[in-house]
Amino acid sequence: MTTYHFPDQFWWGTAASGPQTEGRTVGDGKGENIWDYWYEVEPEKFFQQVGPEKTSQVYTKYKEDVLLMKQTGHNTFRTSIQWSRLFPNGTGKVNQQAVTFYRAYFTELLEQGIEPFINLYHFDMPLDLQKQGGWLSRQTVDAYVNYAKPCFDLFGDLVKTWFTHNEPIVPVEGGYLYQFHYPNHINLREAIQVAFHENLASAKAIKAYHATKQEGEIGIILNLTPSYPRDENNSEDVKAARIADAFFNRSFLDPAVKGEFPQDLVAIVKELDMMPKMEEGDLATIKENTIDLLGINYYQPRRIKAKETPIDHQNGPMPEDYFDYYEMPNKKMNVYRGWEIYEKGIYDILTNTRENYGNIKCYISENGMGVEGEERFVNSEGVIEDDYRIEFVKEHLKYVHQAIQEGTNCVGYHMWTCMDNWSWTNAYKNRYGLIAVDLEQDGKRTIKKSGHWFKKIAIENGFET
Ligand code: GAL
Q1: Given the CA of residue 368, which atom of ligand 1 is nearest to it?
Q2: Domain 3-464 classified CATH 3.30.70.60?
């Protein structure tokens, strides 16, 4: 029997986001964001045409939900403030109802012994700002800082752990390269500008937070997808994997932790003549305002080989001009999501932060398994027996444990997600929660087997196998 015991005060919990859970109610004062809008104009793009207003209704059910969090062992929980709820137009006057809601929600969490971690941006650009270019526009950087500052003032007495962005590479990929977020452009020049503005906005928000002198920490949450070459002894494969790593991981990881963009990426961008527009002082702002804490989302690795297929010039330059994706035979798959399951990836990321990023304080901010049709696994007591999820978490936690044993400064593990929630264009297709949400029965909640199991490991601060 092996015991996997985690350090004292380890953060056990889950992550969610405002736009995926809160829902909308008439008269709540929330403004439109790009998801509300996109669903309005192209509902067919969303799985079974379920839109963001139908999310798990946390706006009205948060008290019940916080109790369920307690019953599933949470000592910490991350969600996000919806920018378009606090500032319906992205800028201007605060929506007081939003302040009341978030204060009540965060207070409820604290009263149940669950520390709220709050993220400021989870893919949810207010529509009015998107109309002016969204992250493409410099004005959005200013608007974002003008949104972040009041958040620190309004909620800083309740919230001690802040994040500037969740997975900032995803709006770049989805909105400006691969068409799964509004505005669905394919344009590398724009993608680079968006990434630059997000990095700059993050540094400026960090600066603003530190200037408040509040006793707390601020970080960023990155989805780090380790890039593995097809053949480690083939220098062309290794080089290709390194470039993919620069585009998708180090483009945010390096500025966030080291305050600098990776040289190999900068060289490529210069070569393409696609350097983003910046102002004097921007690079110094990024250099001087790095994160206190790194959140790591891990779902899947990226398998890469040297470019073998012809470059597709249809949409101008793309990251894939520099590498090909490698279909590794016999990989373990989560067939529902189409994602590879590679548990050791989590260890490799944590080792990388220790060896190459000053062993920065970090935690696993998302890890989890989306499964379609979980109703199949309901037992006679109405509980979903999601043993595959327990297995998934356990196997990842073993590697987290190993990295900690070797000295990585990893202080917690959050799953995605607490309750089944609305997952962008996939809507409710794949369920990730420790708690089931029955949309047919007004969102009735039932703890899954994994939720009961999670409580046990959280209370015991580990597990045995
Ligand atoms: C992450 C994202 C979450 C959630 C999850 C599962 O990339 O941060 O918002 O959608 O994927 O698909």
Answers
A1: 6
A2: no
Active site residue 366: yes
Closest residue by Cα to atom 12, ligand 1, is 423
Distance of CA 300 from the midpoint of ligand 1 (Å): 12
Q: Which atom of ligand 1 is nearest to the CA of 337?
A: 12
Work out the mean pLDDT of the chain and round it to a whole number.
98
- Count of residues in the chain: 465
Percentage of the residues of the chain whose pLDDT score is greater than 70:
100
| Catalytic pick among 115, 190, 198, 366 | 366
Taking residues 35-44, report their average pLDDT.
98
| Residue pLDDT, tens place only, 199-247 | 999 999 999 999 999 999 999 999 999 999 999 999 999 999 999 999 9
Pocket test for ligand 1, best of 423, 425, 428, 430 (most atoms within 8 A of CB): 423
Which residue, judged by its Cα, is nearest atom 6 of ligand 1?
423
Tell me which of 170, 416, 432 to substitute to probe ligand 1's pocket, judged by most ligand atoms within 8 Å of the beta carbon: 416
pLDDT beyond 90 at 318? yes
Map out the domains of the chain as residue ranges: 3-464
pLDDT digits (tens, 9 = 90+) for 402-427: 999 999 999 999 999 999 999 999 99
CB contact burial 110-146 (16+ within 10 A = b; e otherwise)? eebebbbbbbbbbbbbbbbbbeebbbbbbebbebbbe
User: Which residues lie with the beta carbon below 6 Å from any ligand 1 atom?
Assistant: 17, 20, 166-167, 223, 297, 366, 370, 416, 423-424, 432
